[in-house]
Fold:
Amino acid sequence: MAAEARKAVTTASLRRMKAAGERIAVLTAYDASFTQRLEEAGVEVILVGDSLGMVIQGRESTLGVHMEDMIYHAACVARAGRYALRVVDMPFMSYASTAQGLANAARLMAEGGAHMVKLEGGEVVLDTVAALAARGIPVCAHLGLTPQSVNQLGGYRVQGREAADAERLQADALALQEAGASMLVLECVPAALAGAVSRSLEIPVIGIGAGPDCDGQVLVLYDMLGITPGRRPVFSRDFLREAGDIPAALRAYVEAVKSGAFPAAEHSFS
Ligand code: KIV
Structure:
């Protein structure tokens, strides 16, 4: 599509994509150069994830990431961004109370150029989600494996395999939508559960390790380029090795998400 004809992605256009059955391609980015490449490849949503704590800062978890880090990287992305909707993670404990959540989300929007903020959790964040949404701050919720709770979860494990956990996740997803969330990320949950949640909600559901039946997919950029140190998560795919160069890898990812070729069964959990 000619650059002039391309329209910026909005929460409304994402809902229309869901309604039309068009899958949404999401990737993380933390800087200006990759942001431009992601947009050229047709990525609709860029997530400035607190995964930057691990892939940029070399931490063992996301828990040490600060508001200043998120604002810095969000602003780098915002300077280059033209079309993609920019979602920025609220770091660990930056929304421990609703008042804190409001103040920090405002900074991510005003100083970081975020279009939407993302926070983790179910029932415990409902009031904060409602307060943000009521003040015009779009919210992406995050359920399933919520990395900020890794110590409570006992590791990076698939969530929602037990019937009671699956029921709670479904109830939380609906409650978050009712509280005003505009989007939901589901991380590392069985494919059948993620499909059921996606079909039951009006808002777009973006999966990572959540099977093919979500409304869109997200991966950590460095995982899908095969440059994250250590073992590649099983739900990811090394698009750079297959495609040969970064622009081709990004285009291949977008195409694979759109066609439903990614994620395959080997990237999903039962
Ligand atoms: O921080 C991040 O990159 C994320 C994705 C893994 C969804 O939250």
Summary: The mean pLDDT is 97. The two ends are 38 Å apart (CA to CA). Residues 55 and 228 are 6 Å apart (CA to CA). The first helix runs from residue 11 to 20.
